[in-house]
Amino acid sequence: MSEPAAGARAPPFGLWERMVAGRYLRAKRSQGGVALISIISFIGILLAVAVLIIVMSVMNGFRSELLGRILGFQGHVFVAGGVVDGPALGPAVQRIRAVPGVVQATPVIQGQVLAMGPNQVTGAVIRGVSAADVAASPIIARNITHGSLKGYGEGEDGGDRVLVGDRLAETLGVHAGDPLTLISPSGAATAFGGSPVQKTFIVAGTFTVGMSQYDQAYIYMPLATAQLFLGREGSIDEIEIKLKNPDEAERLKGRIARAAGPTALVTDWTQRDTSFWGALKVERNVMRLILMLLVAIAALNIISGLVMLVKNKGRDIAILRTMGAGQGAILRIFFMAGASIGALGTFAGLLLGTLFCIYIQEIQTFVEAVTGQAVFSSDVYFLSHIPAKVDWSEVALITFWALAMSFVATLPPAWRASRLDPVEALRYE
Fold it and tell me: 127 and 33, same structural domain?
């Protein structure tokens, strides 16, 4: 390596500074190095970053899956009020469908019934939706496990074909083509009040939404049939509206209200189950804070390694200072020695966490095959697999935080090394 010209100053973070920092970092314990502590610091940062990425990705995936399934089943905006009764319903639905950003507007009626099958009698929820709207709902039409939509909504007053959630069908012991008896407690009005109505329907098919709370409770019935069966001819409960982007529900709510008419009451999905979505948000933010503190603690391990390195290399620092190395050069050497541990640990953790999230389903399958037990029960978590959605902006934030903590942790011992007095360091040598 050529020497710099007389009077010339080596550039900051130059080749010789990097070489010295790398030599100190690789030095064995017998040579005054702290290789073991450096490895421990590296592994700590690697695991902290990987765990933070994995946990946040799983929480993002969990929220995304729940959001997609719940909103795919229930809708994003809901219109109720006087507009849902009588002849005003049809024109209102057409006006709502014309609003930019609206994908689907579905008149819906719901009611609780008693379902009687060969195996068991259980409660269920009828969801009255027209055949065209069911066919336009991917979460139902594309997830029919047995049977088909053939015959659904066909015949006088909507016909007698229904779709049953697969878990409910399993509980009742019915399959596609089997009869299913339903009893409605609110049937036709009589002089003595409402009388229960019992009717036998044919199971056209079974469907799965992927969430047990829907698959084990809901029965889809043609809208006209449901209105007759529940004794509510000519009226519905609400108009369910689906948007291209669910996050725009609050912004589009005003336009939808104007299109629906002055008697409409408009709400969106953020107003329903507010406590549930709020709890998910708070849990996500708290978990991020806790794990970011874990990354900071892991980065602090660098301090102990560098303090020992500075103590062991006191004689070398003094010699470098007497040969002309400035305080800035010494600071940069030890800064690079510590920061390289943090940077390598951060990027290794980034790679490990990202790969784990990408192959999380394969990892889950392997663990279940080895242990023979389900690690993610759908009865408990409503989902059949561990979801993971990598948010690259969040990954960038995690990477920045880990690097920043690593760099900050190296400054105190590096500053101490740069302020070391050569005379004091060589006095007892």
Answer: no
- Note the pTM of the prediction, 2 decimals: 0.70
Residues 92, 209: one domain? yes
Say if residue 117 is in the same domain as residue 242: yes
Whether residue 6 lies inside any domain: the answer is no
Rounded to the nearest integer, the mean pLDDT of the chain is 82
Pairwise CA distance, residues 149 & 164, whole Å:
11
| Residue that is written with structure tokens 């507009």 in the block | 83
- Three-state DSSP at 28 gives coil
Domain of 115 in residue numbering reads as 76-268
**Number of Cβ atoms within 10 Å of the Cβ of 152:** 26
H or E element that contains 108: strand 102-116
Instruction: Please list the helix, strand and coil fractions of the chain in percent, rounded to the nearest 5, in that order.
Output: 55, 15, 25
What is the spatial distance between Cα 69 and Cα 270, in angstroms, rounded to a whole number? 15
pLDDT for 108-154, tens place per residue? 999 899 999 887 889 999 999 999 999 988 888 888 999 888 889 88
Q: Kindly report, residue by residue over 234-267, the tens digit of the pLDDT.
A: 788 899 999 988 888 888 888 998 888 888 888 8
β-strand pairing of 218-221 with 161-165: antiparallel
In a domain, residue 296? The reply is: yes
> How many separate domains does the chain show?
2
Q: How far is it between the farthest Cα atoms of the chain?
A: 113
Total Cβ atoms within 10 A of residue 110: 16
Helices (H), 81-237: 89-97, 131-135, 138-141, 166-172, 212-215, 223-229
Answer yes or no: are the C-beta atoms of 84 and 107 closer than 8 Å.
yes
Q: Are both 250 and 327 inside the same structural domain?
A: no
Residues 263 and 282 both lie in one domain = no
Predicted pLDDT of residue 32: 47
Looking at the fold, whether 61 and 81 belong to one and the same domain comes out as no
Can you tell me the distance from the alpha carbon of 98 to that of 380, in angstroms, rounded to the nearest whole number? Answer: 40
Whether residue 1 is contained in a domain is answered as no
E-strand stretches of 269-364? none
Which pLDDT does position 383 carry in this prediction?
A: 64
Domain final residue pick, 250, 268, 286: 268
The yes-or-no verdict on residue 45 having pLDDT over 80 is yes
